[in-house]
Every structure is written in C-alpha cells, then in structure tokens.
Specification:
By secondary structure, the protein is mostly helical. It is 45% helix and 10% strand. The protein contains three helices and two strands. It has a two-stranded antiparallel ribbon. Helix 1 packs across helix 3. The longest helix is centred in the middle third of the chain and has 14 residues. It is globular.
Length: 82
C-alpha cells in the first residue's frame, strides 16, 4: 500500500501519490485546490485514476512522516529547521 509491489503500481502506491502531491505544493494550498491540481496533472499523464479516499490517505501519510505541514488551513511542505 505504501510502496509499489507486484500487484500495486508506483502511480497507485501512497509514496507515488505523495510525490504527485508534493510536486504541486510549490506554494501553500488548501486541500480542495491541491486535489484539483493533482487530479488534473495525473489525468494529463494518463496515470491510474485517483480517488479522493486514496488522496486523503496519501496526505495522511505525508503528514505522518512530517513531509507536509498545515498552517492556517493551508498545506505546505514541512519546514526543515536545523
């Protein structure tokens, strides 16, 4: 589910969906805008159809591994303070 495998393509694995999400976070975005952008990019790439449930699972995964932050209702890449 997280990593691709024999029965799960990289485009469907949470790590692949997470990569698509992170590529669209060039500036802080709300969930709805991010959902629309990721769907449109994946549709242009002829990738596997993405459901909203799988999108939310990928967001949860990214938040869990501290790759994204939520600030004032907007999602953004996590800040890496040294």
């Amino acid at each position: 589910m997280i990593l691709p495998g024999k029965h799960l393509t990289p485009q469907r694995a949470l790590i692949g969906v997470g990569a698509d999400i992170l590529s669209q976070l060039d500036c802080p975005r709300d969930v709805s805008e991010l959902w629309d952008r990721v769907r449109s990019v994946r549709a242009g790439q002829m990738a596997t159809a993405l459901t909203y449930d799988w999108f939310i699972l990928a967001l949860t995964f990214l938040f869990t591994i501290q790759a994204i932050d939520e600030v004032d209702g907007l999602l953004q890449p996590a800040s890496r303070a040294s």
